[in-house]
Each structure stands twice: as C-alpha cells, then as structure tokens.
Design a protein that fits this description.
The chain has 473 residues and is α/β, with parallel strands linked by helices. It is built from twelve helices and 20 strands. It starts with a helix and ends in a 15-residue tail after the last strand. Zinc ion (ZN) is lined by residues 292, 294, 296, 298, 352, 354, 356.
C-alpha cells in the first residue's frame, strides 16, 4: 500500500519528517504554484471586474470549446455524440446541455481512461483518488495547469477574501493526510512544513486525552489562519470552549469537504476569535464556491456550469433544492459534462449585498457530518478512507452499531472480488482498531427522502454526549 517514500517517512525521526514535509512541498510547488498559477490569478483578477452578463458569455464560449474538444479527443464523448446523433457544434450554451445525458459516477468508476484526453501522456499526469459523498472510489487525472488553476481559484476567491494567502502567511492545516501512525499515543501529532510555513496536524488523533497537546502546540505556534475539515477543527474548538481555556487567536478559519454547521461556526468563533469561511469544491474540478464577507456562497462560473435537477432529473427553478449536475469548463484533461456530483443544493437569483457579480449557490448538503466514533473519542467522518484501493466497490455505506461492531454495505461493481471486501475491512480496522466488521453485498443503497446519500451511519446510543458531535447531519 505504501510507496517507498511513505515507508521511509514512517521510519524517520521527527526532525526528518519535518524536512520531508518541506521537501514534498517543493514538488507540490511545481504542481500548484508555478507560472500557470500566476497566470490564472491575473485572469481571475481581471474577470472580477466583469458584470454578470460577461460571465454568462464566457460560459457559453467555454462550453462550445469543451464540447468540440470532448468530441474530438475524448473517446467516451466521441462515442456518445455519435450514438445520440448530436453534433457538438449544436451545444452553444447551457440551455443545450439537456440534449446530453447525465454522466453518472458509475461510468467514471468503470472506465476512467475513456474520459481522458487521448493525446495526453498518462505518466505525466497527476493521479488523484476521490470517493466524494457516495463511497464510489474514482481515479481522477489532472495536469499541472488544471491543478494550478484550481489552486488559484481557492486562493483568489476564498483566502483573499479574508486577507491571507497560502505560503505567505503562517498557517495550521488539519486534514486527511496521515502524518503520524494512528496508534501513536504521544505528541507530536503534527508535522512542520517550513516551505509553506504550515503546521500540518493529524485529524486522526483528536482523542480527548490528546487535545491539551493540540491546544498547547497551537498556542505556541501562533499561526495566522487555520484550515481543514470542520469536524476536526470543531473538536479542538469545543475543547477550548468547554474547558474555559484562553482562546487561541487566528485571523480566519477556512473549512472544506464537509457541511459546516452553525454550532461549529460558533465554537470556532469562541475558541479562535475569528470567523469561518466555508468553501466547496471537488477533485473533479467541475465546481467551486466560496463564502463572501456576507456569508453567502458564490460560485465561480468559470470553473463550471451548475444545473439543479429534481428526482426525475427535470430542471429545478432558482430557489428549488435538488441534485447538482456540473459541467466542468476548465477541466479539459478528463472532461465531465452533466456530471452528477451526488450533492444537494440550489441556485439563487438573489443578489448579494457584497455586490459580487458571481452567482449564489445555496444549501449544500450531502457532505454529511456523521462520523464513526472510537472508544477513545476519535472520529472518522470520511468514507473515502475506508474504500481506498477497493476498486471493485461501486458504492459503500458504513453502519456503526457499537465501538467495535460495523456493517459495511457494498454495492459491488462488475469487477468486484472478495479482495475488495477484505480491503475495506482492513482499512476500517486500521483506523478504528480491532473490530467485528461484516461486509454485506446489496443491490443499491437507499437515499434519504431528500435524495441524500448517507455514507456513514452511526448508531451508537448517544455520541453527542461525548461533546464531540459536529452538529446536524
Ligand atoms: Zn456576497
């Protein structure tokens, strides 16, 4: 499972881990912050002066380019356009998209390469894995340009709003990377990336007995902003608030990947004396939205066209909640046209008091706060962790019945083998410890009445009393 680089990292002493984190950032600098990043920043700054109609015109132009490109260079779309008898030149604007079918994750999962621009050398691409909200493991590809563009949008439309910039300001990040073994019981539960001035903290060690260590390190560190999963940041914030500790001051908090609840915002404000800026995106690079000073989510229309559809896939009116269907305009590496993300939201025709020309996106649901809870109070809210490398899994849902009892419902894909089930079991045990884990193969996983997919269901009697629960699901 681990690469040679990872194996060396695990065995290294702490100072060497720090050095390796900085070394890794050097590579990531090339993939994210090179000339393409600078160019994208300049273009975004220019477009920020635009009126809404200019964004609409831009979307039309880019969609026409995308349709032509996909039909010419992407095997899946070449076949699709031929099969349904649509000339890509007829796709002139978002209103023409309904002529094309919705692209499901199962199609991407079954053959990610058929969506790839066939002219690209795969060895030079950045390979990413994601399972989003439905536990469907996907292999996704980016080139340096796409990666840099995505990074530029996050910086310009999210970090800049709070007056900070990645790499320029000292920051704390609490995310999904395993920086230290899960069974480690003593600090450090973090690693220092000198190159980015970033203290990267583990989200896997947030057990009650470790929280004083986390708070002490944050206090000593004196970073300017904190970012990461809201459920992880909230655990530390609640510890500060509940124990009436002196707040640790930050200028801003940035959250992503999970739904942010009001009680999380409040705890973060009390513990860190700053406001939270939520952002929303995905590895497929087909949508990006970030909060403005008025706390409204503004879409970046250059990244993609967003449609909202009801349970019968008919278009919703503005203000009506439905499923998000996205067409990525900057991702020409692996184009996604009318892609069902699996999240719920709505478009709004309101104008925001912040006067931004960018359209509003409302009510993002689907990125649930439900989490598995271990006896020592650690929480695991991301199903992605457990389906890693189980490529025969089409969808997965994990149900926790006790601290050491789990059932994993798996919708098997056609290439599913026993080994995929074993992989899920070993991934789960790696995080939660020894447990009784049963894999149940099912035809489909029921959605909630709102069409929401619940990747994790925790049936422990009362996890909220642990003081760690992350607000409404
Ligand atoms: Zn606004």
């Amino acid at each position: 499972m681990a690469s040679i680089r990872e194996k060396v990292y695990w065995k290294a002493p702490y100072f060497a881990k720090n050095w390796m984190a900085s070394w890794n950032a050097r590579r990531l600098n090339r993939e994210r912050f090179g000339p393409d990043y600078e160019q994208a920043l300049r273009e975004i700054a220019e477009r920020d002066k635009w009126a809404p109609a200019q964004f609409e015109e831009h979307q039309r132009r880019e969609l026409q380019k995308l349709a032509r490109h996909a039909a010419e260079h992407v095997p899946y779309y070449r076949k699709l356009f031929a099969e349904i008898g649509v000339d890509p030149a007829e796709i002139k604007g978002p209103e023409d998209l309904v002529r094309l079918p919705i692209l499901e994750k199962s199609t991407v999962r079954a053959d990610p390469l058929c969506l790839l621009d066939e002219r690209l050398d795969r060895r030079k691409l950045i390979v990413l894995h994601s399972s989003g909200t439905t536990g469907t493991p996907l292999t996704l590809y980016r080139d340096v340009r796409l990666n840099s563009t995505s990074t530029a949008f996050a910086d310009a439309r999210c970090h800049d709003v709070a007056g900070v910039r990645r790499r320029r300001n000292k920051s704390v990040s609490i995310g999904g990377q395993l920086v230290t073994p899960t069974n480690q019981t003593k600090p450090p539960f973090w690693v220092w990336n000198q190159r980015w001035q970033q203290l990267y903290m583990s989200s896997f060690h947030l057990a009650p007995q470790n929280l004083d260590h986390y708070v002490a390190r944050l206090r000593e560190f004196g970073g300017e902003y904190i970012e990461g999963y809201p459920s992880s940041i909230y655990v530390i914030a609640r510890h500060i608030v509940d124990n009436k500790l002196e707040p640790v001051r930050f200028k801003a908090c940035f959250t992503t990947a999970e739904t942010l609840s009001d009680c999380q915002r409040q705890a973060i404000r009390d513990a860190f004396c700053c406001r939270t800026y939520d952002q929303y995106g995905c590895v497929e690079a087909v949508i990006f939205a970030a909060e403005c000073p008025e706390r409204n989510m503004h879409l970046s229309p250059e990244i993609g066209i967003v449609e909202v559809v009801d349970e019968n896939d008919n278009p919703c009116e503005p203000g009506q909640v439905g499923q998000l269907i996205c067409t990525g305009l900057v991702n020409h590496v692996q184009p996604f046209i009318r892609y069902r993300l699996g999240d719920i939201g709505m478009l709004s025709s309101d104008t925001c008091p912040c006067k931004s020309p960018l359209p509003l996106l409302g009510l993002i649901e689907g990125r649930t706060n439900a989490a598995l809870v271990t006896r020592d109070g650690r929480r695991f809210g991301r199903v992605a962790l457990f389906v890693e490398e189980a490529f025969g899994v089409a969808e997965a849902q994990i149900i926790q019945f006790d601290y050491d009892k789990f059932v994993v419902r798996v919708v098997p894909a056609s290439n599913y083998t026993e080994a995929d089930g074993q992989k899920v079991i070993s991934n789960l045990k790696y995080s939660v410890g020894e447990a009784d884990v049963r894999v149940e193969l099912v035809d489909r996983i029921e959605r909630t009445a709102a069409g929401k997919f619940q990747a994790i269901i925790c049936n422990l009697p009362d996890t909220s009393s642990s003081g760690l629960a992350g607000g409404g699901v």
